[in-house]
Structure formats: structure tokens, C-alpha cells
Design brief:
By secondary structure, this protein is of the alpha/beta class. The protein contains 15 helices and twelve strands. Helix content is 46%, strand content 11%.
Length: 438
């Protein structure tokens, strides 16, 4: 039995997968704590894990801080800072990371025997591991190490050629080093460690061949051919939910009242745009003649702003694992976890990527044949002109029709779901933990 500390920071998609990993480790007899933000304490405790607090909770702070958390989480693949807005976002991400550093240092206990680190927390957790002599394992959710096979994931999936892809990947690592520099300096001083830059610490880990387990599926992204030994793609880690969990009665009643609906939700994206997006979604659903379920999310989607429609239901948080298989198609922002959940359910996707790694996953879904052509979120937003809104409604309605009326796309989705079902990502983490414990 090992006392394990998992650290994860950001939005729900950055944290929920680690509840599934933690529950699997706990079932094998390990003691597991998950350090994350206060908003996710109920989720952590419901999975049977000990909750430990990390500061800088994006859900209780201003919108720009939430954006900074997204920027920090994508920093493993961050592009060069551009003028104006991007520089501001990187400054906000740096402040978010500095606040996070102190919380991570406090999260470990004297009996902590192993650290499992998300992409956002790993550059800080490495210093903690060095100071306390604790073994660690990095568990990122997206491909981060440079490769010639594809460009850094925030580039949207557009290849720069093998040389260009690798160069952009190396540049992204230097940018994350810069983002974490101030926090690393403060953390090392607090922990009594000699000065060392994030780049130095990162290169030590690389030179030592430290294992890294990536929590995505080769169904979507085959392991790059030029990655070093020890960088392994193990399959998705699914958020924990109770074995006897069921959909709320209102959802079951809605599903029973007609043909399978389309899910529409944007997770932690599009904060404050609920009224406009709800109007657009309702109009597109009516035009495509399909029923719909709107998940409120951070955008605040609701039927309150639309005319009464018995064929549209608004819901709050519901496990995707229970809901998605009951849908005819899913419309979402294509975060890594939500994209995988759609594939797992065997239903077609209409990708509406917003930022960061989302265009990358949207392109992967389309290339796999399980999704329509992506609709960039900006094409559905920002302009309230009647003509522009009508065009957005027509475009989304056309995608809804393509997704729900094409048997080939559903066949591709079902085939991909069968391949995904053969993987056991959490089981691979358990094997790695037991090798480290031995």
C-alpha cells in the first residue's frame, strides 16, 4: 500500500479524469488524496478520495483568471506570445501558476510515497519531489513532447512539416519554462533547494528517462514514431461516477418522449454567452428538425431565452458516460475529455472548438470519420447582426443534419467506440504505480 497524492488544476476537464484514476488505485488498496480546487471537493470525495485544497480556483474568480487557467493548462504546447491579448493572457497565467505553487508545496504530507502530476501541476510538483525525495509520475492528458508527426496541439493540428513540427514543439517547452520561472524560483527557495531553472529541472527528468503516461487513446492520436522510450500512450482516464448512478428522472422522461436528441454543451467555455448561444442552438435544432438537450455549463445555456419548445431540455451536470450513448449526436467544444467521451459513446460529433488544444481534437475527430467538419466557435459568436446570426443558424443546422442522417458516420463512431472499449488507461497507471512502489 502506497500513500499517493494526485495534483490537478484548471477546469472540470482537467480534474475529473483523475478521479477515475484515483478510484482505481484506491480499489487496489492504495491510500489516495487528490489536491485540486475547492469547487471540485464534492467530486473528489464522492470518488472515495481524500480532498486537499489548491488555491486559484477558476470557478470562483474573474473570467480572465479562468482564461489564465486554460492558458496554463495548455502551456505544454503554448504558441509564442503575440501582441496585446496573448501577452496579457500569459501574464495572467504566470500569476495563476505562482499562486498554485504554494498550494502544491502544502499538499504533500510526511507520509506521501508517490506524486502523480497533471500537466499544469507537473512543473511545480517536480521541485516538491526533489525536495522531499518522493518518486513521481507525470500524467498529462494531451500530447506534449516535441514530435515530427504533428505540430504542438494548440496550433490546431496544422502540420509544419517534420522539422517545423519538432522546432515548434521545442519552442513550446521553452515558453512553459518561462511561464513557470517565477513560481519555480519561489518554490525552490521555500523548499530549501539550490537555484535551478525550470529548463534545467525538465532536462534532468528527460535525461533520466523518467516515464510519462499520456491519458489519451491511440484511436485518436497514435503514439508519435520519434518519441523516446518511456513516453507511453495508455488510453483515456474516465471521470468516476457511482456504479449505480442514473440519469435524472426529467432526462429519462424527455428521452422516452421522442427520438434520441442531440446534445449541445460547451463545458467551461463561452462564459457569459448563454443567451445568444441558446437562441442560436434552439433555432438550429428546429431548422434541422431534431430534438435537443442543452447542458448549461459555464456559458449558462438555457431555454429561458427561447420560445417554449417541448423538444428542447436544459440540464446541469450529468455524467457524459450516462448521457452521450443515448444521443443521436453531440455538439461540443472538443476538450480532450469531451472529445473522447463522444467517441466512447459511439455517436457522431459536431465539433465547435473554442481555443487551446480544442481545434487539434476537432481535426482528429473529423479525420477519424466520426465528426462533421469543425465549426470554429468564432463563426458562431461575436456578431449580433441578423444576417450573421441567420448564417450561423444555417451552418449549425446543416451540420446537425449531416451528423444525424449519415449512417456511415455513425458506423465509424461505433467502430471507434469498440476499439476504445478495449483499452484500460487507469489499469496502466496502476501497473506503473506498482512498478514504482516495488
Amino acid at each position: 500500500m502506497t500513500n499517493i497524492l494526485i495534483t490537478a488544476a484548471g477546469s472540470n476537464g482537467d480534474i475529473a479524469p483523475y478521479t477515475g484514476v484515483g478510484a482505481r488505485l484506491r480499489a487496489a488498496g492504495h491510500e489516495v488524496a487528490l489536491a485540486t480546487h475547492d469547487s471540485y471537493a464534492p467530486l473528489v470525495r464522492a470518488a472515495g478520495l481524500e480532498f486537499r485544497r489548491l488555491p486559484a480556483d477558476p470557478r470562483t474568480r474573474r473570467a480572465d483568471t479562468a482564461d489564465a487557467a486554460d492558458a496554463a493548462d495548455a502551456a505544454d504546447q503554448a504558441p509564442p506570445p503575440g501582441p496585446g491579448g496573448k501577452r496579457d493572457l500569459l501574464r495572467q497565467a504566470t500569476a495563476f501558476i505562482k499562486e498554485l505553487g504554494g498550494g502544491i508545496a502544502d499538499a504533500a504530507r510526511d507520509d506521501t510515497g508517490l506524486l502523480l502530476l497533471s500537466a499544469t501541476t507537473a512543473p511545480l510538483g517536480h521541485h516538491l519531489a526533489e525536495a522531499r525525495g518522493i518518486p513521481f509520475l507525470d500524467l498529462p492528458l494531451v500530447p506534449a513532447a516535441p514530435t515530427g508527426d504533428f505540430a504542438p496541439v494548440v496550433s490546431g493540428g496544422r502540420s509544419l512539416g517534420r522539422w517545423g513540427n519538432r522546432a515548434a514543439g521545442r519552442l513550446s517547452l521553452r515558453i512553459i519554462d518561462r511561464l513557470y520561472a517565477d513560481a519555480a524560483r519561489e518554490m525552490r527557495a521555500r523548499l530549501g533547494l539550490p537555484p535551478a531553472t525550470p529548463r534545467t529541472v525538465r532536462r534532468r527528468a528527460e535525461a533520466a528517462g523518467r516515464p510519462v503516461l499520456y491519458g489519451f487513446s491511440e484511436v485518436l492520436v497514435p503514439r508519435p514514431t520519434d518519441w523516446r522510450t518511456g513516453l507511453d500512450v495508455v488510453g483515456n482516464w474516465w471521470p468516476w461516477h457511482a456504479p449505480d448512478a442514473q440519469l435524472p428522472p426529467v432526462v429519462e422522461d424527455f428521452l422516452a418522449a421522442g427520438p434520441p436528441p442531440v446534445f449541445i454543451g460547451f463545458g467551461s467555455m463561452a462564459g457569459g454567452e448563454g443567451e445568444r448561444l441558446s437562441t442560436l442552438a434552439a433555432a438550429a435544432l428546429r431548422r434541422a428538425k431534431v430534438r435537443g438537450i442543452l447542458q448549461s455549463g459555464w456559458a449558462g445555456l438555457t431555454t429561458r431565452h427561447t420560445s417554449a419548445d417541448a423538444d428542447i431540455l436544459t440540464i446541469g451536470e450529468v455524467p457524459h458516460a450516462l448521457l452521450f450513448p443515448r444521443m443521436s449526436a453531440v455538439v461540443h467544444h472538443c476538450g480532450a475529455g469531451t472529445a473522447a467521451a463522444g467517441v466512447r459513446a459511439g455517436v457522431p460529433t459536431i465539433p465547435v472548438p473554442v481555443t487551446a488544444d480544442q481545434p487539434f481534437w476537432a481535426a482528429r475527430l473529423a479525420s477519424l470519420g466520426v465528426a462533421t467538419a469543425p465549426i470554429p466557435f468564432k463563426d458562431l459568436s461575436a456578431d449580433h447582426a441578423v444576417a450573421r446570426l441567420a448564417h450561423a443558424v444555417a451552418r449549425l443546422a446543416h451540420a446537425l443534419t449531416q451528423a444525424t442522417a449519415a449512417p456511415a458516420r455513425r458506423d465509424h463512431a461505433l467502430s471507434a467506440a469498440r476499439r476504445l472499449a478495449a483499452e484500460d488507461g487507469a489499469g496502466e497507471v496502476l501497473k506503473a504505480v506498482e512498478r514504482l512502489a516495488a
